[in-house]
Write a structure and sequence with these properties.
The complex is a heterodimer of chains A (338) and B (153). Chain A has 338 residues and is of the alpha+beta class. Chain A has ten helices and 18 strands. With 153 residues, chain B is of the alpha+beta class. The chains are: A alpha+beta (338), B alpha+beta (153).
């Protein structure tokens, strides 16, 4: 295999994982997301410790056949030589079989034919903060996505009445509304990335990560969440990570039917207000931010359009009171669940 | 001058979807995304069916017969805008067209000039890993308004 080609990179990553795992520290977990199971194998305990905390809500002992297997290794903790690819290279590449994302100090690759992913890091201590907060994201995305289910850049809250999916670009108010909704009594499905499935009679939203990321200023509005901060020692360009699954396990939910897609918008004053919006407006909020952050699926926007045709869509104007949005979402769930 | 040009979309670079009479287009290379409104979605779906630009204009004029000149002028301008934004590419002459899509059921019979809105607020995703921003002052202050505006057509 020629180094640098997609098959060559896959071959190098596979061989590297084999060498890294020879130390005998291999750790195997299953991630259970709705009815789907992904097997994740870490070549070292240090790497597993760095990456599994946000996935704790999904962890299970390896059991029945998995949809895909993801093998994760690093050079610093195993001594296994990195794949022969310049680590400075950044970008994405794909062909009919492979998807690959190159980042400084990491490579993620998925072999669609073998249903196997490989992720390499130079050093667990140098993994970016957002990768630690939402680990394995490209591989999970590639392993789960079909034309009937997909990761979306969205949040989800709900309860036994069903779920509301909040979508929009960064800064729209998804995370703050999601976190305020927990304080208002709704359950946390996920923030930033959720899995949407169209396979059943009703669209369903599944949670992935058990945390949320916020700028410190946001907690001035939600001081009750301060005890959930993983670490206050963050850089100026880092968000705080709130460990919802760890501190509020009773507030977790997943696998809820989607009752509505809501597009929040921070208007900065007045009272919160919710009004119907067109599916096209919701599409404009959901599609670009999703496909530009989760590229290389090989699928179009049909699944998103289908979701927006099947459930009602709304625009949520977020006013001065941070709890105004959650109150309106709860009222909306009352109306739509009936 | 209208001619026999035919068009196609690069499926690796451009993803698009029409929903409720509006087409959303995303350029995966630049991070720029677009919204086609008015009759834009209807024209877009004729163009990507592979029929010639003259046939697209003729079909739109047939559908909206009372405004022949306006239909022709705005359709031609939209084609030029789509080409300028690299949302459409010229197809090999003689490409076999698929059958033209029918007029949308939602069309109200009145010709609405097409508008192509261009949004550039997500280009940074292609340069950085995602770090989302509210205004530096935090909630509830909005981030800077999205860049974007209607292209002339």
């Amino acid at each position: 295999m020629e180094p640098g080609t997609l098959p060559g990179t896959a071959c190098d990553l596979r061989a590297g994982y084999g060498r890294a795992a020879e130390r005998g520290e291999e750790i195997c977990h299953d991630l259970v997301i709705g009815p789907w199971r992904l097997r994740v194998m870490f070549a070292s305990g240090r790497l597993a410790c760095a990456l599994t905390p946000p996935l704790t809500r999904l962890l299970a002992d390896p059991a029945s056949a998995a949809l895909a297997t993801i093998r994760v290794w690093d050079t610093a903790s195993t001594g296994a030589q990195p794949p022969p690819i310049p680590v400075e290279v950044e970008g994405d590449a794909r062909d009919d079989r492979f998807r690959v994302e190159y980042r400084t100090g990491s490579i993620s690759l998925f072999d669609c034919s073998a249903r196997t992913g490989y992720i390499w890091f130079a050093d667990p201590a140098q993994i970016d903060w957002y990768e630690r907060a939402e680990p394995l994201r490209p591989a999970i995305h590639w392993a789960l996505t079909t034309d009937r289910r997909y990761l979306a850049h969205a949040s989800g809250v709900g309860d036994d009445r069903g779920a509301v999916v909040l979508t929009g670009k960064g800064g729209a108010g998804k995370t703050t509304t999601t976190l305020a909704s927990i304080d208002a009594g709704l359950s946390f499905i996920g923030d930033n990335y959720v899995l949407l499935s169209l396979e059943g009679r009703q669209p369903v939203v599944h949670g992935i990560y058990g945390n949320a990321k916020v700028w410190p200023q946001t907690l001035q509005q939600l001081p009750g969440l301060k005890p959930y901060v993983k670490s206050w020692d963050v850089g100026p360009d880092e968000k705080l990570v709130l460990e919802i699954a760890r501190h509020r396990p009773e507030s977790l939910a997943t696998g809820l039917p989607v009752r509505a897609v809501v597009v929040p918008e921070v208007v900065g004053g007045g009272d919160a207000r919710i009004t119907p919006c067109s599916p096209a407006q919701a599409m404009l909020a959901l599609a670009p931010t999703t496909v530009l952050q989760l590229p290389l699926t090989g699928f179009g926007l049909d699944g998103m359009a289908e979701l927006l045709r099947r459930v009602p869509t709304y625009r949520l104007e977020l006013g001065r009171d941070v709890m105004g949005g959650p109150r309106l979402l709860s009222t909306l769930l009352d109306e739509l669940a009936g | 001058m209208l001619g026999a040009r035919q068009f196609e979309v690069d499926p690796v670079r451009i993803v698009h979807e029409t929903i409720e009479g509006e087409t959303i287009l995303i350029d995966l290379e630049t991070g720029i995304y677009y919204s086609l409104r008015g009759s834009g979605a209807e024209i877009w779906n004729l163009l990507i069916a592979g029929i010639t630009e003259a046939e697209v204009v003729a079909e739109m004029q047939r559908r909206y017969g009372s405004e022949v000149e306006a239909v022709a002028a705005t359709t031609e301008q939209l084609i030029e805008d789509l080409l300028a934004e690299n949302l459409l590419e010229l197809a090999e002459p003689g490409t076999e067209p698929v059958s033209a899509p029918p007029r949308p059921e939602s069309a109200n019979g009145l010709f609405e000039p097409p508008t192509l809105e261009r949004y550039t607020d997500m280009e940074y995703f292609l340069l950085l890993d995602p770090i989302h921003e509210v205004h530096a002052g935090g909630w509830p202050q909005a981030a800077a308004p999205a860049a974007g505006g209607a292209l002339p057509n």
